[in-house]
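TEACHING EXERCISE
Course module: macromolecular assemblies
Task: Read the component lines below, then compare them to the predicted structure of the full complex.
Student: A.B.
Group: 4
Components provided:
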Amino acid sequence: MPDAVLEAIDIDVRFGGLQALSSAGVTADAGTITGLIGPNGAGKTTLFNVITGHQHANAGDVRLLGRSVAKYGVHRRAQLGLSRTFQKLEAFNSLSARDNVLVAAEMHSGVRAAARQSDEILERVGLAEVADITVGTLPTGTARLVELARALAARPRALLLDEASSGLTEEETAAVGSLLKQLVDEDGLAVLLVEHDMSFVMNTCSHIHVLDFGQIIAVGSADEIQNDPAVRSAYLGTGS
Amino acid sequence: MTPPLLELRGVRAGYGIIDVLHGVDLILEPGTVLALLGPNGAGKSTTLAVASGQIQPSGGQLLIGGREVNGAKPDALARAGVCLVPEGRGIFPNLTVAENVRMMTFSGTSYSDVSDRAYELFPRLGERRKQLAGTLSGGEQQMLAMARAMATNPALLMLDELSMGLAPIIVEELYGQVAQLAAGGLSILIVEQFAQTVLGVADSAAIMLHGRVTRTGPPAEIAEELTAAYLGIESGGPS
Amino acid sequence: MTFGRIRTSLLVAFGAALASLVILYWRYGADTEVSGEKIVIASVIGLATGSLYALSATGLVVVYTTTGMFNFAHGGIGVFCAFVYWEIVENADGLGLPPGLGLAVVVLLVAPLLGILIDLILMRRLRTAPLVVQLMVTVGLMVFLLTLANQIWQADQIRGVKPLIDRAEGFNIGISRVPYYRFANLVIAGVIAVFLRILLFRTRTGVAMRAVVDNRELTSLTGARPGLLSGFAWALGSSMAALAGILVAPDIEFNPANLNSLMLIVAISAAAFGQVRSLPLTVVGGLVIGLLESHYQQWISLGPDFTFANRAIAPIVLFLVVLALPQARLSVGRVSTNLRPIERTTRVWEGAFGAVALVVLAYVLAKGWFHFGVWDPGEWSSTGLNKGTSAMVLALIGLSLVPLTGWAGQVNFAPLAFAGFGAFLWLRLGLWFGLPDTGGTGNLVWLPLIGLLCAPLGALVAVFAARLSGLYLALSSLAFALIMANVVFPHPQVLPRVHTFQSLYLDVGFARQDFDTRFSFFMLLIVMFALGMFALIVLRRSRFGRRWVAMQDSQAAAATVGVNVVWTKVVVYATSASMAGMAGVFWATSLSSVDIRSFDLLAGLTIVLLMAAAGMSFPVAGLFLSFQVVFEGLAERLEQTENVEFLVWLLKDFFAKFGPGLLAIGMVVNQRGAIFEMGKGFAPILPWRRDAREELAAENARKRVTEVGGLGLTEPFTSEAIIALDTQLGIVDDVTPTAGYHHGVSRA
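Instructor-supplied answer key:
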């Protein structure tokens, strides 16, 4: 039985009259990659924001390593091991790639240790060559990798990736995929990702949650999800 | 021979220094409905932004009715009859329904015509004239957005993700209206994720991937390929 | 929904203001008996003035809601137009138009034209600029308009504007007389408010103006022209500023600075009352401020220690309202422009080198070893040292803005308030702690203590600032500056009116160095600046510097890696406050006495403007504050020479006076500041800056690309094609490092 590193339980979010999430929940286990998919506007990013504390939930609980963090602020959750990337890029644009990573590493390590860790992570993510370049001038795909590197430098136990592959070339996507598998296998990280590139999801994720109209409509393996009629109709419309 | 109503020739465009469209070719014949499909980030909305004048192409040509209109401002195109209903509720949330309807008169239709037509098509809006548009339900907001398309007699209608976040029954109602417009001979370009619904009303369809139109054809053929594109079946893993 | 919350907050703020008025009366009531008659009269006067405030404020709100631009120059426009009115109506040598016609000409012609001009030339280009740039440009415009008014209508004669209806006409309430013109103001303001309401809610143009605020893109998709609408809004806003300026003029001392501070602060406070969006609440805000002011004057007398406290009413309202407003959320997404491809922070050794070079250069100049051929070295050094001293004092204060605004992005209009606090502590420390030299410690060993003691004030401000962002932060810092300047500092217990700060010295027990000559004091300032600059360069390369910049780029992302945003703000505010506090010691010493004029709003804003125009993120920008002083000094020196009147005028009356405003306005074009551009030109010359040379080469290559396009080729080249072409033509030598990142990431 795998340990749940991250659990979001029965999350409700209302924006005015709009019910963005109703009793939505996800679980991410140590050493696994979990996918969260669903049509546009289903509430995926909202759920992410609730988990990291950027969005207030009307009801529900978020548990990290078995401990409720729903009352904590964003930075506190981050210190406890929750890290993320953003759908709309939120890199530190006026800093270099290295400094982006350093800011995160320095939150828990001394000067030398942080510098060493940063260089290792940049190498691992494949950013060593652009380390000194201002992130604001990098292509979107590369800036996304900087966000990933920065998230890793924060030493997460659970890593949330929002559209990790958008803007990336096919090779870059593949590289991110194998990097994630490596992280999960070797470091026991729990990864939860929102993704539109379905071949990426189907190939990387061992569990997939499908969100539609703010509700989880299916949970299962790639095969189960692909053959689930509810999922098909959610994606392709009412006709099929 | 009449020129295509809307034509994009090798259009490149993007935000800042980053190109999203790498040479898009697209043709919409007069009086037809074209569905533009594809996964997120493929450049569908950017294509509409170019066609409506919101983004200036950095390369290639944008032609409307056979005339090159590169560089035309969105308000000028709107007055010329290009109507885009943008993604995510094309309404002004802090104006009342009636004021939203009044904003539809800038493309040349009189206020009485617009309001008569809008409230006739969507009686529910008529009941809520004085209400702030932002307090309407999602479906009603989309109806209000659609009302502009339907009440101002545009020459070219472009709809972006009409169905996003809406319940299936409302989507069907909205597409019923689209089908009526199409039957009336309006040229329509639809960007959608709910492929099945669109393909029902479309005369032809195009698939967009990575900033290019990769496939154009009759809806039936496109439908076959879509499942694969969306759910990643049979398309092979990353090599 | 949220409107209810806002209303509650405003009620609380209003209640607090009313309660403090009552408490003040109970404690410090003037020797007037409360009578119904007096209450009515004070209320009538308050409403009449308040309606003019409301008029001015609604103009500000109309512009903000339609264009998204908060116009700090609103008061300046009003001032300029009011003086134009004086010129064509009241001036004996002027046109002598009848008041009604003059009013029509100014309000319906001059003001709208000015507004449209401002929109066309400046504001249109700023729509997508970062907030800091928007603020600086409009503040720059305000300073420019004020300087212009001051230059045209110099203080050599006393001017006055008569009300439209003769003052003598009026009626009596009991034994007090209320003139009709005050009622006229009330009526005019009321009519305008109704007109605006009809315009914005009943006409298509008005609906479209409100639509632009909601969604500019969608507005243009409907076929409405956002450009025309914003031009119209600017014209309308300017007219209202002009009208308010002309109507309020008869009741005040008619000079540009006075009229501006009244118009600007009151308009901002009233507008903040309506969250800069709601017109009805803005009107209420204006009336409330008017009422508070008149009742304060009627009932309360705080004595000579608080002479200027009435000027603080509007800022206090502003402060309360901003604090009572619902909390701003973490803002996500903001586009920074014009970044350098290679991020390069000044290296420590470069900082040390620059600091030493500065000290040496200043020493050589101050000694008068260079006399530029023509000038008598003795003369040069005496004026030069005086000017240099006042410049370096400003430079030291300016340095405090670098971490706070330049790196952490926290807009601060109150550097002088922190500096004044430092000066106050310097003066009082001796008294409180029994240090030697009571009434102004002169010994610099105590300077670090000032820094330490100022930090908590900064931290306190940060606690308030942490929940604010963007515009509200800027507004509250403005209110803070005004409250400190009008209430706190003028109090004799804080800074005595007649006091001379004693000269500084450093006494560490076994050695003593005095800084009582011009030369030694100047060199002391130079050394302090060099040290401060060096310290900042080291700080920027430390984890703190990185964290601050990261926080400015994205607060949301900084929090997800574990950065405590509130705490980080507290640290950066404390750092800035202690720097400014220590600078305040030198500032006060150089002025030898500090009074209310030292804290003039314009003086503080000029520091901020020049820093911004130079480039707030570079410590060396502090030297830019010598700008005015240098031009003035040169002009003074040149005045003794023949046949250079034009040059003198140019230096003294044009560059020195208009410079700060014009430079800030120039940020429309160059948002990164002058240092950035100068550095780009200068760096490639330095032998160790290979990176700068490569960058320059790459930029030139890019320029050539656009030139090729300009030859008439319609099909743009791809970047691959250009590189191939350039290599073929041999234009770009083997400069490839920049090409690498254009093609994404290469992987091992």
